[in-house]
Amino acid sequence: MSILEYNEITEKKFIVMDGTPYEVLSSHVFRKQQRKPVNATKLKNLMTGKVTEYSFHQSEKAEEAEIDSKEVKYLYNNRGKWWFSEVSDPSKRFEVAEEAVGSQGKFLKPNTAVKQLLFREKPMGFQFPITVELKVTEAPPAIKGDTATGGQKVVTVETGATVNAPLFVNEGDIIRVNTDTGEYRERVNK
Q1: What per-residue confidence (pLDDT) applies to 23?
Q2: What's residue 121's pLDDT?
Q3: Same structural domain, 136 and 180
Q4: What is the CATH number of the domain that holds 84?
Q5: How far apart are CA 50 and CA 27, in angstroms?
Q6: Domain-ending residue, one of 16, 37, 64
Q7: What pLDDT does residue 144 have?
Q8: I want to staple 115 with a disulfide (CB 3.0 to 4.6 A). Which of 99, 120, 127, 165 is the partner?
Q9: Could you give the CA distance from residue 101 to residue 184 in angstroms, rounded to a whole number?
Q10: Can you give the pLDDT at residue 15?
């Protein structure tokens, strides 16, 4: 357990406030005129998923959260419930509510290994791969003259998620998608 000074609370760090773990999404240390410096942060509550803003003053400190992780395998989802199992023992299954999985879950293929984050032995979320390769199942044909609008079209990938992709992406192509932003990265030639 380490204590962070106000200016050490930076992006991608995990802190504890009021007994609850938070992920620091953004931080900006600045000084208003003649006042003391502050660190304006955006924090994501890892238990509820809510994002709040908080300013740490020069005299404030925060406890760094000790986040454990274990490897689990995504199996399937049905009616808002997401099913996972232990990697070594598929019979040890557990369900997770859709809110706990988050928006990145729509890019998960069955049997994909992900990291489940734990805080004091309590599950609180998942760490997904930053990019995934998915097969395009539906892609409308490109129509001549479409490039005036930026050359993008909405394609559907094998998990059912939709992605904005360039006009040259066709059905059957494999594309790489950023799971954080949901953006198209590149077409993979296989």
Answers
A1: 87
A2: 82
A3: yes
A4: 2.40.50.140
A5: 17
A6: 64
A7: 67
A8: 127
A9: 21
A10: 92
Low-confidence ranges of the chain (pLDDT < 50): none
The predicted structure's pLDDT at residue 62: 92
On whether both 59 and 71 belong to a single domain, the answer is no
Six-digit token string for 137: 């199942």
Angle at 44 between CA 66 and CA 15, to 5 degrees: 30
Q: How many domains does the chain have?
A: 3
**Residue 15, CA atoms < 13 Å, CB-side half-sphere:** 27
- 117 CB contacts (<8 Å, ≥6 apart)? 46, 67, 68, 69, 123, 124, 125, 126, 127
- Quick check: 72 and 84 in contact, CB under 8 A? yes
Structure tokens of 179? 């799971």
Of all helices (H) and strands (E), which one includes residue 170? none
Within 30-102, residue ranges assigned H as helices are 98-101
Given this model, what pLDDT does residue 33 score? 75
Give the tokens for residue 56: 């740490």
